């Protein structure tokens, strides 16, 4: 990934990453989902969520304070 982006979440659940991406968008934080799951055998792999480095701390706080995702 580009140097000015930071990984803030790794999950085996793609829908969870998309929900958190939407939550961050509501707070005007850009996010990118990188799906590393195996297309031939979905239980293997993970999904990562990246945000710009300057928004990483705020994004982590938003995620930590959202009890729905905890």
Annotation field: number of helices: 2
The gross shape turns out to be globular
User: Could you give the order of the helices and strands?
Assistant: EHEEH
Domain count: the total is 1
Q: How many β-strands, per DSSP?
A: 3
The CATH architecture would be 2-Layer Sandwich
Helix percentage range: 25-40%
Q: Regarding CATH, which class? A: Alpha Beta
Mean pLDDT: 89
* Major sheet summary line: 3 strands, antiparallel
Radius of gyration, CA atoms, in whole angstroms: 12 Å
Judged by helices, strands and strand pairing, the structural class is: alpha+beta
Strand arrangement within the widest β-sheet reads 1-3-2
- Low-confidence parts: none
Question: Can you describe this structure?
Answer:
This protein has 70 residues and is an alpha+beta fold. The chain has one domain (5-69): Hypothetical protein rpa1041 (Alpha-Beta Plaits, 2-Layer Sandwich), CATH 3.30.70. 33% of the residues lie in helices and 24% in strands. It has two helices and three strands; from the N terminus they run E-H-E-E-H. It has helices at 14-26, 56-65, and strands spanning 5-11, 32-35, 47-52. It has a three-stranded antiparallel beta sheet, covered by helices on one side. The mean pLDDT is 89.
Which descriptors apply to this entry?
70 residues; alpha+beta; Alpha-Beta Plaits; 2 helices; 3 strands
Concise structural overview:
The chain has 70 residues and is of the alpha+beta class. The chain has helices at 14-26, 56-65; strands at 5-11, 32-35, 47-52. The chain is 33% helix and 24% strand.
